[in-house]
Amino acid sequence: MATKASEETTAALTAFHEKPDTLRVLKPLPEQPFPLTTLDDSSRNHFLHLVNTWLLDLNIPTKPWSDVFFNIFLAMYEKATNNTVNEKNNTIWIQTLGNNSPTESKFLYNVFHGDQISTEDFLIDFPIGGTIRIYGLSDETISRKVMDLVQAVVYLTYSLYLESYVMRDSQVQLTTSPATPFQKERKITVSKPNSNNDHPSIPKRTSGLLNWFKKLNPHHHTSSKPLPSPPAEKEPKKRNNPLTIKRGLSLNNISKKYQHPPLPQNDLDLIQPNDPHRFYKLKQKIQNASISSSPDCHFPYPELLNRLEVEEDDLILEQRKINSIYNDYDCPTPNTARPPPQRRRSSFMSSFSSLKRTNSIIATTDIQLPQTITAYSSIRPAAGLLADSQKGLDHLNLDTTSLSSFKHHQSITLGFTIYPIGCPDRPCLGPLMSKIDYFRYHAPADTTTTIFPNIDQTLGHMIRHWSQSTQSSCQTHMDEQAQFIPGLMAETPLPINNATRPELLSTETSKTSESSILTLSSSFYIPKRLCSKFHGCNQPLVDHIFCFSHGIGRINVYSSMDQTCLFIDKDKITTWLTCGTCDSATQPVLLNERTDRFSFAKYLELIFYSSKLASPQPFCQHTKEANKNAIIRCFHYHGITFKFVYEDAKYYELRLPRIQLASLDAIESMPQYEAPRMAITVLKDWKNKSATQDVDAFFESVRNHLDLLDHYTKAEGRRKIRGSRMDADAVKKYQTESKSLDAEIKVLSKRLDTDHQSLRQILEDTNLNELNDFRRHFAIQSEAIIQYLTEWQNTKCDEVTDTIGWDSPDYIRMKTVHCFPGSSVLVREDEPTSIIAYTLSSNDYMQAIFHDDVGPEYNEASDSHPSLSSTDESSTSETVVQPIDKKQLPQQSSDIIDGYYSSIERKYVSPSTGASTETASFRTMVIEVMKSSVVEAQMNNTKRLEDLKARLSPWTKKQEEEEEGDLKRQKLTERTIKPLVAVQELEKQETKEVKVASFFYENNTAKNLSKTNISPHIKHKFVHDGIEFTCIVYYAKEFERLRKQCDINQLIVQSLSRCQSWTASGGKSKSHFYKSQDDRLVIKEMMNAWNVAEKDAFLKFAPKYFEHMKLSAKEPSVLAKIFGFFTIRMKNTLDKKSPLFNLDVMVMEHLFYNQNIIKRFDFKGIQDRQVEEFRKQQKDTTLWDGDWINEYRTKLSVHEQSKAVLECAISNDTQFLSKCNIMDYSLLVGIDKDKYEMTVGIVDFIGAYTWYKKLESKSKSTLQPRKEVTVVPPEQYKQRFCREVCDYFIAVPGKFDLVTSSNTLPSLLI
């Protein structure tokens, strides 16, 4: 969104545009203010750097070939500079000879032998001609490489030759050292680098021959300092903080030795994908890129690399932090005031593993990072870079050192727009993208395309062309530019044929007409979605602004009728510089003929990136420092003044859904049974809270109350003794009572200490996955203690009315919170997702999942490691369960204090019908706490187990008859709960907890059934305190694997454990939504619409969804992930009416988690969809397509690379949805202005194109024939969605973006 500052800048520039220039003088203008006969130092050093880089790339010996090409370069440059006559033959030829030494190679002026240099890759128009004679080429392989290199050298020479005149006309002072003509001794004086970079995030590249030789020797002892990071990315140094990353330093250990000097540039090409500093090194390649023919060009890092480097650093810091916490590591005090430097690691995500501490080495091991960090990162420690970011890198050209890369970068891709002054959101032309090849003024001779789409123009040609077009209307200009492309304005564009572009300029040289007659072959097509960029208006073109967007900025070209500038040389172009702040200006000069012939596209690159061009000789206080925003470059021709104004710009990055899939090869197939089912940090935190906020707080409250009773009994005893002072027997009696009460209180206090330590030890021994078992035990203990103390208080101190002031935890205080065993998740009746979280984290569910892999012989880990085993007196027996007559089942005993009952079931599926048939596996569990004997408990619970099994999932009669083929086991565990000694003395019966668990597996071998026939769904029921909960997990194993690939298998349990109701805006669905309290997940209730249940639709869609998700591990996907589908119910067992609730819910990722979203949009590819005006004023309203097009599109441009990834993802996903007969989905977009990101995701993608949808489409089309309807067939919906939605985003290309030709239009439209 346009900022206030940018709006003020636009207003100021508009005012500046309208103000006439009164500083021009009426006198002949100087054409050559200072001589230019020798090469400046920065160009000389830049040439050496490029040639040596290319020699290394081509594997050609740098000695003597570096000297050979440098001498040829100097000879051609100086001859061209000193030449004053236009040669008739200005072609460059090359002649190779096998005799003599390469050092004798030379440039022969005005001599033509050998072969003319090919213009296939580079086009040059040298003012001189001659032959480059190369000696010593006896090797054919090297000969071919040298030929390629000679061509690049000639191009480089030509570019630097013309650029030197551009710098002169731009008032740039060039530093030149005296040197011999051929520089045989190569004593190069390096120009002083500018202390101010063009952009704060772009450090200057160190260039020059000396630096290049230093890079060749990585062990040079004079360069022992660590490699510095770019200034913008450096963190402030913290002397004694081991968690601070130092760029270029190792994270594997801290050493007293300095690291090695920087690697040679070519060694950076060997960066491995698993390198822990991969993206920092990739940015170093960008910083030292050898891709421009111009010296002192500094290119900004691609935004993707900036983000990935930040994520890379964050992971390393988090790994260090968690290692230091969970290895009980205390940061050592260094022996010196300055901490020793670190050395770069070679293994990914290993923290510092060796540190000096009291003369010993403390080794640390990597602790797994929590999924709260890894799930939202593009880099996974095990999986590496995920598909969306990997594809993002595929859209970048990160080769920055090879000759082929240099050739590729001799072009620029621009975003181009023409709009009326003051109306940037209503462009007359564009926005469009065009790629322009530098100095390519006509198509290659051997091309089949007679109009080459990437044609360049000279700087002078563009000024004259614009000048002659300013008086015509905008629409006329559009027609003239597009007339050589028939059908461009049509609804269905035609193939481009041999039409010609008319000659517009009469003052051009003879070669102008040749470069202007350009046609395209019939094989070149303009995409239809790019044909809607031409609007035009009736205003004159002089009232418009030409905008060129690229990289991190834009160049606005303003034109004005300036009749005050009546120069004598009106038929020539004059140029000067103006300060954008104070209107100071330089003396106008005639544009040099060589500057006139300079590439227009190359000139734009210099404005964008050249620090040299941004540093002219100061002409006011605002231009003393390099600041390209302050300099306005003016050109005047035939009464028209053109002003080139640069301004920095910030563009958005399109982000796919944060949670992406890793490859199955990079993860375990399924999580281990004993593995934490939530983040270990969360489980440990819960365990610590149980220790401090539950146990410690409870006993502290009890001790405080006991102290109160102690003070009361002592005070009451003294009062009674004073009142009976005359009665010795009474005094003796009261003293005895007082001592007895004091003794009892001391015994109680001592017992409290013992029980406190006992409970803390029990908690310490409790499995992190089973904290509920301790909570249940603690609830019983605390209740028994409170009950006893209350009874003791009523008996001994009945005058005291105070109670124990303990704020009990919610699972004790509230009847709606349940502690089901075998998990650490509390089930809350008012938070439905807690039912899901408990199921996914329960022992029963994990055993059912693992049974698929290990079969009925699986040994249940929960029984081999019983909870609270440290204080249990338990016995275990295994028996065969015999069917019991259901009529003889006893009712619940009044001695039962508490009881938990559960069952989990899977069925077989008929291969023919898909319907559920017989039970494949069935587990039941009864845990009851009662005051009874062991024999009575065993008998009652065995019968109760059969009752539960018969009530929840009765076996078929056929199964009971085939009992020999069934595997049925039952285990009974009994534990005595020991509260206070005094309590046991009062109780006639012991308080015991009895657990009876039974599991049943059908014998698959006996019935010759395959495990593939087992239902993919798991049904889990659990009962407590008269409330029965049911959770059906659909496609349990498939979703478990998907969550593991997304690295949220633990995080989803943690998030679903707490939820809240949520109102979503923007959709037509009447569904109810919940959102997890940590804001990570959205839970949508499925509804029945058009007589088709969304639940049934998804169950049919799910298998195809899982297959598509497997592919998205390798290809980017924009689908908002579905992480689970469940049916959850809750009902009162005593109430025969309908359940308290019965929900079919879908768990999805929250696209906008942890983002400051200021605007939301819902796109369907229909531009006339708009939200009502009154709703736009409401907070958090989701806007539609038309609102984006009319108000936001032109203000929120995006990076081209991120748009390319989005287009790839949309193409993949919509193709999949179309095959699944799915339509009516949307692209949800959220704008995060803080991070300059747009998060996007396809939502609502389970709507099938049913008969009812067809009826809806037909009726809407009939009622509104001129309005595009939403509901159309899936293939038609896909085509419209891809065409329109992708075009909603205006992309701005960067220097390293790989832009496809389908997204560009011919450059002659500019």
Keywords:
disordered N terminus, 1310 residues, 8-stranded antiparallel β-sheet, 12-stranded antiparallel β-sheet
Could you characterize the architecture of this molecule?
The strands form 10 sheets. The protein has a 12-stranded antiparallel beta sheet, with helices on both faces. A hairpin with a 4-residue loop joins β30 and β31 (1081-1085). The N terminus is likely disordered. It has 34 helices and 41 strands. α2 runs antiparallel to α4 (140-169), α17 packs antiparallel against α18 (771-796) and α32 (1200-1219) packs antiparallel against α34 (1274-1287). The longest helix is centred in the middle third of the chain and has 44 residues, at 680-723. With 1310 residues, it is an alpha+beta fold. The chain is 34% helix and 18% strand.
Helix content: 25-40%
Provide the gyration radius in Å.
Answer: 40 Å
What is the averaged pLDDT score? 76
Question: Main sheet, how many strands, which sense, barrel?
Answer: 12 strands, antiparallel
Q: Tell me the span between the first and last alpha carbons.
A: 26 Å
Helix/strand-derived category reads alpha+beta
Number of helices: 34
- Poorly predicted runs of 5 or more residues: 1-5, 15-27, 180-267, 328-364, 489-526, 853-892, 952-968, 979-988, 1003-1011
Strand portion: 15-25%
Number of strands: 41
Spatially, the strands of the biggest sheet line up as 22-25-26-24-23-27-28-34-35-31-30-29
